[in-house]
Amino acid sequence: MTSDAVQSLPDQSSPEPRRALLVVDVQPTFCEGGALGVEGGDAVAHAVAGFAAAHRDDYVLVVTTQDWHVDPGEHFSDTPDYVDTWPPHGVAGTAEAELHPALADLAPDVSVKKGEYQAAYSGFEGVDGQGRLLADVLREAQIEAVDVVGIAESHCVKATALDALQLGLATRVFTDLTVPVSPDQGTQARVEMTAAGVELRPSA
């Protein structure tokens, strides 16, 4: 084959998909000292901030989600079972419900709040400041793939990743940028996500 023939061959490489970074519920309420603090939450917050700063150009959109509870009904309980009912957390307008201070320089493209009047685990149950559902935000930006990070792996990260997959998005969870409520629940969440088709991998 001549060099001219080689040069005329079509490029067989696939273009990178349009990708979004979903930063799920990185809030003080879910970190050490918060109402539902998860061990390792603060470390994840700082790791997510560092990753986002270093890789911002890899993403068409960076989206944050926040628990933003006003009156979520039976989601809050004075006698929580920590399965379906929980102590008050992520209360709208409080410092605990804001983004973690480590994310002060993140400047997300879209901020989604969820759970005002109901339990909401998945970021896809929330809306942005314009009232758009997360699915619509991603669709409008022609997003094809998402990377999911945040707190907690066993709950809102898992729910968000599974919903993203259901929408037909190639979905990855970065295992070093999330933390579960407990090791056992983390193991179960990873089994569920893997079985569904979510890719679990470190961010490096």
Helix and strand string, N-terminal first? HEHEEHEHEHE
Give the rounded overall mean pLDDT: 92
Could you estimate the helical fraction of the residues in percent? 25-40%
Ends apart, CA distance between termini:
39 Å
In total, the number of strands is 6
Q: Which range does the strand content fall in?
A: 15-25%
Can you tell me the overall shape? Answer: globular
What is the radius of gyration computed over CA atoms, rounded to a whole number of angstroms? Answer: 18 Å
Q: In order across it, which strands form the biggest sheet? A: 3-2-1-4-5-6
Structural class: alpha/beta
What is the makeup of the main sheet?
6 strands, parallel
Tally of DSSP helical segments: 5
Low-confidence blocks of residues: 1-6
Written account of the structure:
With 204 residues, the protein is α/β, with parallel strands linked by helices. It is 27% helix and 19% strand. Strands 3-2-1-4-5-6 form a six-stranded parallel sheet. Helix 4 runs parallel beside helix 5 (183-196). It is globular, with a radius of gyration of 18 Å. The protein starts with a helix and ends with a strand.
Keyphrases for this structure?
5 helices; disordered N terminus; six-stranded parallel β-sheet; single chain; alpha/beta; 204 residues
